[in-house]
Design goal:
This protein has helices at residues 2-17, 46-49, 106-110, 185-199, and strands at residues 25-34, 38-43, 52-56, 59-67, 76-86, 95-104, 127-129, 134-139, 143-151, 158-166, 168-180. By secondary structure, it is an alpha+beta fold. It has two domains: 1-20 and 182-200, no CATH class; 21-180, Sandwich (Jelly Rolls). The longest helix has 16 residues, at 2-17. It is globular, with a radius of gyration of 22 Å.
Length: 200
C-alpha cells in the first residue's frame, strides 16, 4: 500500500514542480550614436523597437521595453543580454557605453494598461533600476559583451534595456527574458509527504 501511495506522491510532485510558464522570450535591439549621426536604433521591443529618451534630474538614458509575462508575485525573472559594440566614428576618438536594465513595479501592472511606462506621461515612479550592469567601458576596437541579471522579488510585466554612451555602434543585440516559477506550497507539502513515506 505504501509503495502505491509513494508512487502517487512522486507523480504529484513531478506535476507540481514542472515549469508552468512560457518558453524564454528572445528579443533583439541595436543602436548607434555619434556627434555627427546623433542617436538612432531599433529592435523588436515595444512600439517597433522605439528607444525612449528619459531625461530626469538624476537620470538620463535611452530605454527600449520588452514584454513577455504578466506580473506574477511568486515568480522571478532571469535576463541574459548579448551584443557587439564598436566605435562609430574614429575621428571622434574612443567610444564609451553604459548599460542597466529596468523593470515595472507591481503598481504599474495593477493599472491594467497595455504598454510600459513612458517619459512624456510622468511615469518614472513605476520603474525600478538595476545596479549598473555594465560599468562604463571605453573602446577603439570591437568588443563582444555578455551579461546576466536576475530580478528576484517578482516577475515584472515589462523589462527594458537602459543604455547611455557616445560614439558607438551596437549590433547583434539579444535579450532573453524568462519568467521562472518558484516551488509552490503544494510542492513543499508533496516533498514532506515523500520524506515521511521514505522514512517508513
Amino acid at each position: 500500500m505504501n509503495s502505491r501511495i509513494l508512487m502517487m506522491v512522486v507523480v504529484l510532485l513531478a506535476w507540481i514542480v514542472a515549469p508552468t510558464t512560457a518558453e524564454p522570450v528572445t528579443d533583439t535591439f541595436y543602436a548607434l550614436e555619434s556627434a555627427q549621426e546623433g542617436w538612432s536604433g531599433g529592435g523588436s521591443g515595444y512600439d517597433d523597437g522605439h528607444w525612449y529618451t528619459w531625461d530626469e534630474p538624476t537620470w538620463f538614458a535611452r530605454v527600449q521595453w520588452f514584454n513577455n509575462e504578466p506580473f506574477i508575485p511568486e515568480n522571478y525573472k532571469t535576463i541574459y543580454i548579448e551584443f557587439d559594440i564598436d566605435r562609430l566614428d574614429p575621428a571622434e576618438g574612443e567610444g564609451d557605453f553604459q548599460l542597466w536594465v529596468n523593470w515595472t513595479t507591481p503598481e504599474w501592472s495593477a493599472l491594467g494598461l497595455d504598454r510600459p511606462p513612458l517619459p512624456d506621461q510622468g511615469e518614472v515612479g513605476y520603474l525600478v533600476h538595476s545596479p549598473m550592469l555594465l560599468d562604463t567601458i571605453y573602446f577603439t576596437s570591437p568588443l563582444h559583451i555578455e551579461l546576466d541579471y536576475v530580478i528576484e522579488d517578482y516577475n515584472p510585466e515589462w523589462v527594458s534595456i537602459d543604455a547611455y554612451g557616445h560614439n558607438f555602434d551596437l549590433t547583434n543585440g539579444i535579450i532573453i527574458h524568462e519568467c521562472v516559477p518558484e516551488p509552490g506550497t503544494l510542492a513543499l507539502l508533496a516533498f514532506g509527504m515523500l520524506a515521511v513515506l521514505r522514512r517508513r
